[in-house]
Each structure stands twice: as structure tokens, then as C-alpha cells.
Write a structure and sequence with these properties.
Layout lengths: L4 H17 L5 E5 L2 E5 L6 E3 L1 E3 L11 H13 L4 E2 L9 H9 L9 E6 L6 H14 L5 E6 L7 H7 L2 H10 L3 E7 L4 H10 L5 E5 L10 H11 L3 E5 L7 H4 L6 H10 L4 E4 L4 H12 L6 H15 L19
Parallel strand pairs: 4-5, 4-11, 5-6, 6-7, 7-8, 8-9, 9-10, 10-11
Antiparallel strand pairs: 1-2, 2-3
Length: 325
């Protein structure tokens, strides 16, 4: 898609604003060619590419195939491991626990999440015990509230003293840092940030389409950065590679590079095949900060298909409910 001068100026202005916001986060020493960044106020060094926990638990993978993907990612320099208590009824956590045997646990920054629809603190605390057992570890590096995807969830999190329960787990040495996630509506993330300012991290969808419709990038990202939170980007390809299959032309590298060019500490990518992992590793090793014109071109290319949120199926919209992931 060619870009007229008006569009170029519009998106170039955004690229300049992004640079003022902070642009890509300062990095650390790469590991095996994989860039590392600091996860906000935690001070922890994490790989710019994170391995998504949902895909490694799919029933299309054998246990050995899933473990091979995870260990290959770690061997290649990825240290951020994403997971959740509810992924495939616990299979994702159990497989990750097996993959982290034989010294691999010491090589990773391990994150998992808890979820109950009513935000019940007692049940969430029990989920932590399940996760510790499945992951075969004594401590979770980052434990997050999973999937803020309903208008009542932020209030329920605070009314039911979820932060207090998580801080207690932290005091007991079961978790090191705490945060929250969601991909349904930026307003609910903003409520979470307004309700308590001491979250260590936030996980949110960041991609070229999000920029144009119900944008987390425009609203949540600046406030989270002001709070020095670790920014965990997700759905860089739109979930199930939506931006590649249905509304291209985007490449995996273009999608990942846009998300990595934002002030993200790590970008989570679901990979259930070794060739998908290799593709993501190559794109991550090739990442360099994008120029203003490169950002403008990507945004201009996504502006029309992204206009009404059709391809962002994971976001809340009138008449459509999001699904849990």
C-alpha cells in the first residue's frame, strides 16, 4: 500500500511522540544474539522475545515436542517463560515444569497467572499452590492476575483484596513480583492502574492494529511507564497470526519489530512448532530500532483493516464477548 503525504505526516508525528515517550527500552547485554531489556521497577533482565505458555500445551503437540520447543528457546537465549494456571487444564504448566528440569529452571524468568471469574482470593491462593507443584518450583518469579476481561473485574480485584493476597504470597517467598494481564478493553486496565500503583508489571496487546482501535498503546502504556512498570507485550501477530492470514500483507518480522520498537521489556509469542520458534528468534536477533518513516509506513498499512476492530477478535465490543486466553 502506498502512503500519501497526509498519512505519512500523521504517522510520522506519532513516531516522534513515541520517541518522546521513551521508544524502545534500554537494553542489556544480548545473550546468544537475543536482546535483553530491564523489566521495569523489578530491575530484572528479560529476553526481548518471550515464549507463550498457551501454545506449548496444545494437544497437537506431544510432551516431547513441547519440551523440545521450550528447551530450544532457552538454549537459544530466551529466558522469559509465560504460563497460566488455566491453560489446557494445567497441561501447559506441567509440561513447562518438566522442561525446566535438569538445571533449566535456573536459566529462566518464570511467570504464571491465576484466574477466577469472581476474583476469589482464597481460590486464587490455592491456584498458586497448584502452579508451584505443576511447575516443579519453590518460587514463581512473576505471578499475575489473569485476564481482566469484564467491566466488574477491576472493582472485584480490589474489593476481594487480591493485591493483599498476592503480597502475602510474596512475603512468604512463593512469588517475587506481581502484576496483571488482559486484552479485552483498555478502560479496565486503566481502572486497575488507578486502583493501585504498586503493580510490578502489566501485560497487554501491542501491535499495529491496536494503535488504531480501542488502543492500549495510547492509554495504558503511557501510564504504566509513568509508574515504572515492566511492560509485557502480547498478541504481536494479532493472536492466531490474524494479521498475517486475513488482512496482510504483514510479515512475522514486521509484526514483532513493531511491538519490540515500543517501550516493551518482552514480547510474548505463541510458538507450537520449531520452525515458528526459529522464525521468531531470527526476527528478534535482527531487530533494530525503527525509523519514524518505518513506523509511519507500518501504521498506514494497517489503518484501513484495523479501523473497526474486526481482526482484533480478543477485544471487547458491543454484541461480542471476548474469550479467555
Amino acid at each position: 500500500m502506498s502512503m500519501d503525504r497526509r498519512a505519512f505526516l500523521k504517522y510520522s508525528a506519532f513516531a516522534s511522540a513515541l520517541a518522546a515517550l521513551g521508544g524502545p527500552q534500554l537494553g542489556c547485554e544480548p545473550r546468544n544474539g537475543i536482546p535483553y531489556r530491564i523489566l521495569g521497577k523489578t530491575g530484572e533482565a528479560v529476553s526481548l522475545l518471550g515464549l507463550g505458555g498457551y501454545h506449548i500445551g496444545l494437544n497437537t503437540l506431544s510432551d516431547s515436542e513441547s519440551i523440545q520447543i521450550m528447551r530450544t528457546a532457552i538454549d537459544e537465549g530466551v529466558n522469559f517463560m509465560d504460563n497460566a494456571h488455566g491453560y489446557h487444564a494445567g497441561r501447559s504448566e506441567e509440561l513447562m515444569g518438566k522442561a525446566l528440569r535438569d538445571g533449566y529452571r535456573d536459566k529462566v524468568f518464570l511467570m504464571t497467572k491465576h484466574y477466577t471469574f469472581d476474583r476469589d482470593a482464597t481460590s486464587a491462593a490455592q491456584q498458586l499452590e497448584d502452579s508451584l507443584r505443576r511447575l516443579e518450583t519453590d518460587v514463581i518469579d512473576l505471578w499475575q492476575v489473569h485476564q481482566i476481561h469484564d467491566a466488574g473485574h477491576p472493582a472485584a480485584v480490589y474489593e476481594n483484596e487480591i493485591p493483599e493476597m498476592m503480597l502475602q504470597a510474596q512475603a512468604e517467598g512463593k512469588v517475587r513480583y506481581i502484576g496483571f494481564t488482559g486484552h479485552s478493553h483498555p478502560d479496565w486496565h486503566m481502572e486497575m492502574l488507578d486502583g493501585w500503583s504498586d503493580w510490578d508489571t502489566v501485560q497487554l496487546p501491542l501491535n499495529t492494529f491496536d494503535h488504531h482501535w480501542n488502543s492500549f498503546e495510547h492509554t495504558v502504556l503511557p501510564q504504566a511507564l509513568d509508574l515504572n512498570m515492566g511492560i509485557i507485550g502480547m498478541k504481536p501477530l494479532g493472536g492466531e497470526a490474524q494479521f498475517l492470514k486475513d488482512s496482510g500483507p504483514f510479515t512475522v518480522e514486521e509484526c514483532l519489530h513493531y511491538a519490540m520498537n515500543l517501550p516493551t521489556a518482552t514480547v510474548i509469542c505463541g510458538m507450537d512448532r520449531l520452525d515458528y520458534l526459529e522464525q521468531a528468534l531470527e526476527a528478534t536477533r535482527n531487530f533494530r530500532p525503527l525509523s519514524e518513516s518505518e513506523v509511519a509506513e507500518l501504521l498506514a498499512r494497517s489503518s484501513e483493516p484495523a479501523a473497526d476492530g474486526e481482526f482484533e477478535y480478543y477485544k471487547e465490543r458491543l454484541g461480542r464477548r471476548t474469550f479467555l486466553r
